[in-house]
Amino acid sequence: MRVRNTWCSSSRKVGTLRTGRLHMRRSGWWFVASSWSSSSLQKSLFSALICLFLGFGAFTPVARAQTTSTIEGTVTDRQGLAVVGADVRLVGDTVGFDKTTVTDGNGNYQLAAVPAGTYRLTVSRSGFATKAFKSLDIALNRTLKFDVILEVGTVQQQVEVSAVPPLLETTSSSEGVTITPQQIVDMPLNGRNYLDLMQLVPGVAINRQADLNSDNATPVLGERANNTGFLIDGLSNQNELNGGAAAQFNQDTIAEFQVITTGYKAEFGHASGGVVNVITKSGSNDIHGLASAYHRNNAFDSSDISGKSVPYLLRWDYDLAGGAAMVRDKAFWFASAEGIHENRQLNFVPPPNTPQFLLHTEEAFNEPTTDREVRLFTKFDQVLGNHHLTEQMNYTNLHVNSTNPLSASTSLPSTRTNLGDRSLLLGFSDVVTFGNSASPFILGLRGQYRDEPTLASPAHPQAGPNTLFNLFSSFTTGGVFGDQGQFNYGATFTPSTLEQKYGTFGASLAKTLNRHTLKFGWDYERTRVDGVEGNLQNDQLFATQADYQQFGPVDAGFFLLLTIGGLTPQANQIKLRNSYNGLFVQDDWKVTHTLTLNGGLRWDYDSAFNKKDNVSPRIGFAWSATSKTVVRGSFGLFYDHFRLGLVRDIPGFGGADIRESQPLSFPRLLFGVPTIAPDIFGVCQSTSLTDAQIAAAGATCPFPGSFGNTTALYGIDHLNNIGLTPIPANAVVNISNVQQLSGLTPDAFLSAADAAIARPNGFWEWGPFGALSFNVFPPSGFPVTIDPSFATPYSRSYTLGVQRQLGNDWVVSADYYHKDIQNILGVRETNLPFAARIDNSGGSLTQVDGFGPWYAGTYNGGVLSFQKRMSRRFTLGGSYAYVSENDGALNSNLSTGAIGVGNGFPTDSFRGVPPVVTDPGTPTCPGKTNATAAFFACNGNFVPQAGKFYNGATLDDGPSDFALRHTFEAHGLVQLPWKIQFSSLFRAQSGFRYTQSALVPLDQDGNGNFDGRDLKTGRNAFTTPHFLNMDMRIAKTFHINERVSVQALFEFFNLFNSANPAAVNFNQNHTPLLPGEPIFGTVSQTLPGREGQVGLRIEF
Predict the structure, then answer these.
(1) Which of 532, 570, 645, 938 ranks highest by number of CB atoms within 10 Å?
(2) Nearest to 233 by CA among 186, 187, 184, 282
(3) Cα gap 739→1019, rounded to integer Å
(4) For residue range 1032-1080, what is the model confidence (pLDDT) as tens digits?
(5) Does residue 736 form part of some domain?
(6) How many domains does the chain have?
(7) Does residue 226 fall inside a structural domain?
(8) Is residue 713 part of a domain?
(9) Nearest-angstrom CA–CA distance, 911 and 895
(10) 202 phi/psi in degrees, rounded to 5
C-alpha cells in the first residue's frame, strides 16, 4: 500500500495569472486590469519598476511606514476661513516624541513619522486663543484626519479639551482591524498570547482543534494561516522555514498591533494571507512599570466530558516590565521579562474499543504536558537631531514536553513529542526626516539578525516505532482497515535539530508632493538553515485483539513497516540557503477632497527558487460619499513567500537525501491476516479458508489482474507445506527459525515460496524483524523533485465595502471579499500513464513525484461588523461572517515537517489531455472506450473523455479546510462603579469540515496509492457540531497613591463549559454496525472545558 504514513493524498490545479499595467500621467495615474502570459510583458513591468526607482534618484531607498502614522488636517476660524501660519505642536504622553510644524497657505498641516501612542496636540496663532487637545490616541499605520477650529482671543488664553479623533479612515482602501492597547491589557487572554486577539478581526477563522502552528489554525480570509506575514516594529518576525510567527513576545511588551486582511499596500509583501503588523512599547519621560503574576489550577476548572474528572492543571506566569528616560526628551529605555511554568494533563479520551491491554501499557506514558518558557525584551530609543534611532533585543526559550494536539484523536500518549525552541532577535532602525518641515522627506533604515535553533524528539522513544494498529473483530470482515478502529502508538521520529539564521536589511523613503504621497522601498533577507533530519519508522499493523495478546506487537498479524531516512548520517544533513529581495513603489493620490486612490507595484524574488516574475500590482480607493460614509474597494495580487521547509528533504536545494522502503510482511506466513490488503497488491489469499476449503468452494481471487494476480486464491496454509517438513499452523516463521521448522535453508524457502504462488525468483525476501515479506514498490528515493512548472502561490483579491458612522461613537460596516487563490502547492505523480486507471500498471513504474502548483481555490465572503468606542463607560464590537470557499487540496497543511509528513497525493494524479484508451472488459462487464465520452471502467475507476484537458485533482474539489460557513464574534468592556471592570469575548461558529474514510479504499488513477476517502460522499462533505465559547474577565483596581495602583482580576475561559469538538469519528460504518463500532460523525475528542485564572497586577 503506497501509503507512506497515511492512506490519504492531496493535489490542485494551476490558475491563470492576471495583473495589469500602470500608466503614469502628469496629473496622476490610472490602472487597467489585463491578463498576461508572456514573459516579455512581465519583464517590461519589472523594467518599469526599476526605472521608477532610478528616475527618482533623489529618493534613494520607506520610512517605517508600517509602524508610524501621519496626522494631518486644516486649521480654520469660526467662519471656516483658513488660519495661515498657525503653530501645531504634537507631544507624546506615552512615547518620547515632540514635533512642531506650521500651517500652509490653505491652513493645512501635516506631521509624519509619528509613532503610535497617546499625545497632546496644541495649536496656537496670534489673535486666537490657544487650543490644546489631550489624550489624542494615534494608532499605527494610519493617516489621522484631525481638523481644528480656533476661537478669537489671545495666545495666552488656552482652551483644553479631550481629543475625539474621527472614527472613519477616509484615505485607505485596505481592510483590517487595529487591536488597541486597552484590548491587549483588558481583554481575557487564554495563555497571555497577544495573537489570540486575532479572533477579534472579521474574516479570521479560529480552529482550536488544530495544532497551534499548523496551516488551518488561524486562516485569514481563507488563506493558510502560515501564509500570513508577521512584522515586529517594522522588522520581520516570519519563520521562513515553516511559515507563521517566529518568536513569541511577552503580552506586556506589545503596544498594539494591526491585522490587515487584504488590500494592503505594496510596502507589505512576501505574504498572501494578510499581515500582522506589531509594535512594541517604548520608554517615555516618565517612569512607568508593572509587575504581575497569574495563576491557574484545576480547582477553578470543570470537565466538559460527562463522568470524567477535571484534568490536572497547574500554571504560574510571572511578568515584569518598565520604561523611562535615560536623557529627558532624548534617550529612552523599555524592558520586560516573563516566566511561564505549566503542567497540564491533556483532555484526552482514548478511542472507543481501545483494548484494555493497550490502555494499560499506555498509562505510563499519559503524563502531564509540561511547558517552560522564558521571554526577555529590551528596547532603546534615541532622538538625535532629525534622527530617531531604535535598538532592540528579544530572547525566548521554550521547552514543551509530552504534547500532542487533541485533533490527533487516535494517537495514544506514547506518540507524543518533546519540543524545544530558542529565539534571539537583534534589531535596529533609524528614521530620518529632512527637508521642508511642513512636508519633509522621511528616510527609513532597518536591520536585523535572528538565530532560532529548534529540537523535536519523541517523548517516549522506549515505546518503539510508531504503529497504526488496525483492530479487527474477526478474520471475516472483508475490509482493508480494522472494523474496531485504528489506534496510534509509539514514537514516529528520531530527534531532529534545525537552526535558522537570518540577516535582514531594508531601506525606504517617503515624500508628500502636493496631492501625492510617494513611497519607495527595498527589503533584503538572507536565510541559512542547518540541521539534521530525523528518521521515520511507521508501522501499520492489521490484527485481532486475541492475536495481539498471544503473539505481541511484531508477530500479531500482517504489517507494513515504512522506513524513511538517510542511508548515512551525512545524508540526513540539511543545509538550506536563500536570499530574498523585494522592491516596491506606491502612491497615495488625493484626487479630490473626498476621493483617495492607493496604487502600487511590488516585485519579490527568492534566490532558492529563482522565480523572477513575481510582480504584483495593487490598486484601491477610499471615497467619502458623505461626511459619515466611506466606500472603499481594492484589487491586487499578493504573492506568498516560499517556505524553505518544503525542500528540506530535496538534495538539490541542500536538503536531506532521504530513502524509503515499505515491504508487506507476514510473520506467521499466510495465517493471521485479517485484511484484504495483500489481495490488492499481488498475493491473493483468503483470510480464513485453507487450500482444501477453497478448492471445495471453487473460490477465486476477487482482484484478478491487480499487481500480477491471476484467478488463483491461496489458502491460509498454502505456504506451510512447501518445505521438507510441514510447518505447524499459525506458527511464527522468520529467518532465524525457518530451517528448523521447514527443513529448508532461508534462501531455499524463499525460492519455494516464489514458486508456490507462481512468482519469479526474488519476489519474497526476509524483511523487517526477519519476517517473510515482499515489496510492491522497490526501495527508492523519497519524492524529492520540484516540478518544472513550480511557481509561487499567490492570491488575486477583490474587495468592496461601505462604512457608516452612527452618532458620535458607533461605526457599522458591510464588506464583500472575493479571492482567487492560485498555485496552491502539493504532490502528484507526474509520470503516471493515463492507461494505468484501467490496467493498474502505475504501481509497477518507478514513480516521479512532482511538487508543484497543482491546485487552486476560490473564496467568497460577506462580513457585517460594528464597533463602538469607549463612551458612557463601555465599548463594544463584533462581526458576523458568511463564507463560501472551495479548493481541491486534499491535505490542508503544506508539508514542512520532518520527512515531508503530510504531503499526500490527490485522488487522481493525472493532469493533461487524456489519450484514447479501451477497457477490454470482463465476462461480466462489457469493454468501453473514451474516444467520444467518459465512462467508468470495470474496476470502478472513472475514465474521462479523450482529447479534453483533465485535471484529476478536481475529484477532490470541495469545501475548504480554511473557512467556516458562519462566524459570529462579539467583544466588549464595561467600566463599572468602584473601579470594577468587566470584559468578555464571545464566539459562535460553524463546526469544522471533515471527510469520510471509506471501508474499502479505491485506486482511482491506478498508481497503487489507495485513497482512504469515500468518493461517493465527496471531500469535506461533513461538518462537526458548532463551536461555542465565551471568555470573561473581572478586575478590581485599588489606587494606593497617585502613582501606584493594584489590580486584582479573575478570568474564565470557556465560561459555558461547552464540549467543543476537537476530533470526530470519520470512518465509514459497516451495515449493520459491528459490536462496539464507533458511530460515524460522533465527537471523539473535545477541547478543554471551563478553566479559571487569577491574577495580580501592580502598576506605577
Answers:
(1) 645
(2) 282
(3) 50
(4) 999 999 999 989 999 999 999 999 999 999 989 888 888 888 877 889 9
(5) yes
(6) 2
(7) no
(8) yes
(9) 21
(10) -60, 135
